[in-house]
Each structure stands twice: as C-alpha cells, then as structure tokens.
Amino acid sequence: MIAAIYARKSTEQSGVNDEEKSVTRQIEHATAYAARKGWTVAEEHIYVDDGVFGAEFVRRQGFLRLMNALKPHPPFQFLIMSEESRLGREAIQVSYAFKQIIDSGVRLFFYMTDQERKLDNAMDKVMLSLSNFAAEMEREKASQRTYDAMFRKAKALHVTGNKVFGYDNVPVYGSGTNTDGTQRRQYVVRKINPQQSKVVVRIFELYASGFGLARIAKALNEDRIPPPHGGNLGWCPTALRDILQRDLYRGVVLWNRTQTVQLGGTRKQRKRPESEWLRIEAPESRIISQVLWKQVEERRARNHRAYLRGEGGRLLSRPTGEDRHSSYLLSSIAKCVTCGGSIVAIKRTAKRRYTRTVYRCAYHHKRGSTVCSNNLEVRQDILDSAILHAMNEALDERVLEASVVAALERIRNEQEKFPDQRVALERELSLIRTRLHHLVETIANGKSTDSVIASLHQEEARKKVVSQELSRLDSIAQVVSLDAKRLAKNLRSRLGDIPALFSRHVSLARQMLRKLLDGHILCEPIMEGGRAGYRFTATGTFDRLLTGFKVVNESGGGQGS
C-alpha cells in the first residue's frame, strides 16, 4: 500500500518548538508512522511547503502538486499529516481541500493523534468545520497577542523592527538563562552609532544646502563610506531618500503605520490611516536638529510640488514600470556590462547653445566612479540607430522562420506542463467562486462590513488574474497549431521596417523590443580605431511574440491580438 506525506511549516511559526514543527521533523514522524502501518512512502509522494503562510494557498506549490496528483486517479491510497492545521488556515478553503482528498478515495490520517479523518456522515462534517473554525480563531488570537506585544515594546522604545542606519541594536539581558546556559535577552534598544550618525548629519546638511541625491551619493562613495546594507554598489539615491524621510532621526518614533492584508492570495503591506499611528517622542534617539529637519522637509516639499501631476494627483514626470511612456528606446532594456547597472538617457547642454541626449551607465552617473568605472557617453540617436539596424538585418525571413520553428518546439515542450497548471488554476478559480458566493450571501443578509467589502474586491481581483492566465494558456495552445512558414512571413510583415517604426512610435518599438529579447541588451565599452563606443549583445526569443498572435481563419493570415 502506497502512502503520501504532506508537511508544511508557516512563516508565522517560531519559538522553542520550532525544530519540532520543521518540515524535516514532520516528514520523519510521518515516515515512521507509515512504517508502523506497513505502508510505503515514495520520494515523489512527499509534498512540502516550507516557510509559506497557511492562508496563501496559491503560493503553496507542494499543496498544488498534491491536489493535482489526485486527478484523474491518485497514485497513493493514504495521506499522512501531523494535524489538520497543516493543510491550511482558512476554513472554507481547508474544508474544500479535505473534501477533494476524501472524494478522490484517499484516506487521510494524522500521526499526532493516530486518527483518520472521514466525511461520511453529518457529525464528521460538523467536527471538521468546528476544527477549522477553532484553528482560524487561534490564528487570529495569536496575531492579536503578537500585535499587543509589539505595541508594548514600541511604547517602551524597544526595537520592534530591523536595524536602522545611524544606530546600533543593543540587547538588554535579564537575570534568567537559556537552556544552553547563556543569559536570556529581555529586549533590544537603539543606541546612536557615533560614526554613522555623523554620516546622517552630513546627508541632511548636503541636501539642505542644495545638493541633489545623486550628487550626495557620489560624494559618499568617493569617500568610501559604507552604505547601510553593505555590498559593492555603494550609496544610491533611493537609500538617501529613505534616510531623509525617517522621523527617527529627529527623535520621533512612528509605529503602526502599515498593516498586512490578504490581496489575491498573497500578503501585502498597506498604509494605515494616520489617526491609527502611534507617535512617541524619543529625544535620546535624536541625531538631527529640528531646524535642519525643517529645512530638509521644506526642500523636499518644493521638489514634490515641482513634479507634473495629472488627474488624481498621479505623478506624470516620474513614470515607473514596464509600460511607462519613456521617450527613449533603451529605457529599462540596456545594461552596463562593467557593473550590471542600467544604461539611462540623460540631457547634456553643450556650451549653453544646444541640448543633446546621451546614454550612460546609471551607476556611474548617480553613484560615481568608485562603483562603476564606465564613464562612456554615447549619443542617443547613434546607439538607437545601431541597435535598430542590427535588429532589422537579423530578422531576415529565413532566419525568422528557423527561429519560429525552434520557438514553436519549445512551446510544444512546455505544453506538457499545461494540464497541471490548468488543473491548479481551474481549482483555484472554483475556490474563488465559492468564496465569492459566501461573501455575496453575507452582504445579502445585511452583514456588510468594511472587511467583507474589501474581501469581495480582493477575490474579484484575483479571479480576474486567474481568468487571464487561463486565457493565456489557451492562446499558447492555439499558436502551436500554426504553420511556421506562414507565421514567420506574417511576423516579418508586421514588424516591417524597424528603424522607421521607431521614428513613428517609440513606446511601440520598445514594447516590441522587450518581446524579442530574452533578457537585456548588454552594452560593453570598447575602443576601436582610437574611438570609444559600445559593443552590444543580446539573445532573441520569439516565444513571447508568438503568443500574441492568433489565427483569424484557415485561409487568412494571422493578426496581432
């Protein structure tokens, strides 16, 4: 008889019994239990989720593999776990999972109690619901206890988070001892670090005097001052921005500013209303004078107001993300070979007569030569033109056809994984629909609260994501049936004259370039014939481009979807 094992340790589990709750120990106990029963456990039937929050079902790959193994016929007769809570924390999802397991014909055992879970009568179902409810209530209580403990620590000015640049975390020991004989730590406090605090003051003074973040970063890197998190990349503007807005440096502790919420099956940080923040005066932690802090805040406010804003206050002059409307082809695409930083476009004014745009390494530009020695600047129009013409020549129809054939073959090979992915997504979609049904019923019964409405929006958002992923799998399935030669011709026709496309629409050219690249364009500074320039290399792929096409009809060509 064949048995399977499921083991999970959550990120929320820690403490004295941490080792006993480890997945390794769970597997050991479950294996021993199977041996006592005379069952065999194969390696491929051990399903593990280590360090995954119990409510995050969609991120638990071990759980998803287990559920996929049940269809169409499970390869094992028994499933062993330590206790019911290992399967999950949310009552609705856990109940559904239990039913799926038992309905498949698999018998479910818990080695801690040597009990079998059945759902063959009403009392078993009631006991399962009560057990799941009790586990969920216990989790909520544990979360509240943790919050209360953190609140008490924050009010007492004990450290509740990570180390902050400018301070040392100093443990305070009590009279008790640990099991190994060492002194037991009671709490941790922050003490001003003399060397780092001088750096903090310098950063604030430079910014108040008119220095920009990039200029400050270069100055610190030139003086070989270690950055907050170490490493060889030195100081960067982002780290400086975080320092300039940290209230702790003016002797104020702000706690409870964020909360962890479930969004789309994952935990995310969300800002709390300012009325819920805990503000504590901590004059012994003050590094920056109130006068200097006010000067910096006033300059930050002026800079903030200077940004162009659109509807709803959304920043327009500092776009971020893959779909930003940059004026430059290589934005977020080209990388410096010397240091791995991005190649960025900057404006240069020549003798106050005209302005031109050049590409250069962002790390050298913003952090200085101590981080990256690549000081090469190349005119934007020259580098863009060189890359686009190289692409145009490389995409010969015969080359394109061979690449399409290879891409289609890779997609066909990947399709072997599609059934498992589809089953997992369809199962998740079914769970989402079940939860949505319960939420709608709750609202219909007049029990609509802010948390219920928020949960409804979260489930709807996740439903959209899962549905889109299922549609993507369908589009890939359509692609593999296409004729490679006809598809290559169609693609080449759509791509057209690439340099001309760039001149018409930069953002479209950049989107196309992203789809054609497997990674980034690597720019290596070289000297040829006494002239400095870049040698650029890149690897192409047609996989992403192909999945954007579909067949209109058998006799016609393909069109972009």
Quantity of strands, as a count: 19
Q: Give start-end ranges of low-pLDDT stretches.
A: 13-17, 314-325, 545-561
Q: What is the terminal separation in angstroms?
A: 51 Å
Q: Roughly how many Å is the radius of gyration?
A: 30 Å
Taking strands numbered 1, 2, ... along the chain, how are they ordered across the largest sheet? 2-1-3-4-5
The share of residues in helices is 40-55%
> What's the story with the biggest beta sheet?
5 strands, mixed
Q: How much beta, percentage-wise?
A: 15-25%
| Total domains | 3
The DSSP helix count reads 17
Q: Quick one: overall form?
A: globular
Estimate the mean pLDDT confidence: 76
Global structural class? alpha/beta
Note the main attributes of this structure.
single chain, 561 residues, alpha/beta, Rossmann fold, Hect, E3 ligase catalytic domain fold, 3 domains, 3-stranded mixed beta sheet, 17 helices, 19 strands, globular, disordered C terminus
